[in-house]
């Protein structure tokens, strides 16, 4: 893949920042960790530089960076509170942390993720923050699905979307103001200091105030779809409760609190799965079909049991 001007200049920014932090710098190769329209991330030794999505609000990003700096035991702190412009993007720099090993699912840090979330949810925002952006990401997924063109699997996904309450579709304010991560999955944890420091949450792009159940929704949805083993879901939920997480009751059935967020994340996941399949010109794989089938089941819930659309 050819290097874009953004990627080349972001690499130079990471190298310059790393050299200012480490003297002498071992100066190995700079690695591209992510290169997507909504975020480009490169690493040079112990420094990571991130170009945030175009049109990122600088005031909101500064508030999120300030929050990360104020909660160093929960969120990875940035190297600076000021995002600098680069081409049409805002760039932030971070210390490198060791990510979760995707090839070792048995070592997935479910307890650490749950405990960090519980601590985050129990912490008053240290500075005024915008709404948590989880519902907006779900809206973007549905928009991409509609723009992808006709697909036989799209109908149950879109129908399930219409049965979500307005707040979960970003059409009304969220009915809570808890400090939330907004996009929790295992790729959002790193060990810092690398290689084996404590686990911390990363990626503040969706950080804000809102419904804390959204941060539990992805593992909850995976469990409900049969994609996450029951024992791993139990580990996650138990650790969250033991750490005093407020998103669910301390005991008893957690699903009344998780139902809407889990449905929303299932719809989002299914929508993006269809988009990727269309772009690749291939049929849905087994996992993608499972989340679409879950949307189909969601759409068949009797109307009297479905969430009220105006809530």
- Order of helices and strands, N to C? HEEEHEEEHHHEEEEHHHH
Major β-sheet strand ordering: 1-2-3-5-4
As a percent range, the share of helical residues equals 40-55%
Strand content: 5-15%
The biggest sheet amounts to:
5 strands, antiparallel
Structural class: alpha+beta
**Shape by Cα distribution:** globular
Question: How many DSSP H or I helices?
Answer: 9
Spans of at least 5 consecutive residues with low confidence? 302-311
Q: Count the strands?
A: 10
Average pLDDT value?
93
The Cα radius of gyration reads 20 Å
Distance between the termini: 46 Å
List its traits:
9 helices; globular; 10 strands; alpha+beta; 311 residues
Give me the secondary-structure topology:
Elements: H1 5-21, E1 31-36, E2 39-44, E3 47-52, H2 58-70, E4 84-86, E5 89-95, E6 98-99, H3 110-121, H4 134-147, H5 154-162, E7 178-180, E8 189-191, E9 199-201, E10 208-210, H6 213-224, H7 230-242, H8 255-280, H9 286-299
Antiparallel strand pairs: 1-2, 2-3, 3-5, 4-5, 6-8, 7-10, 8-9
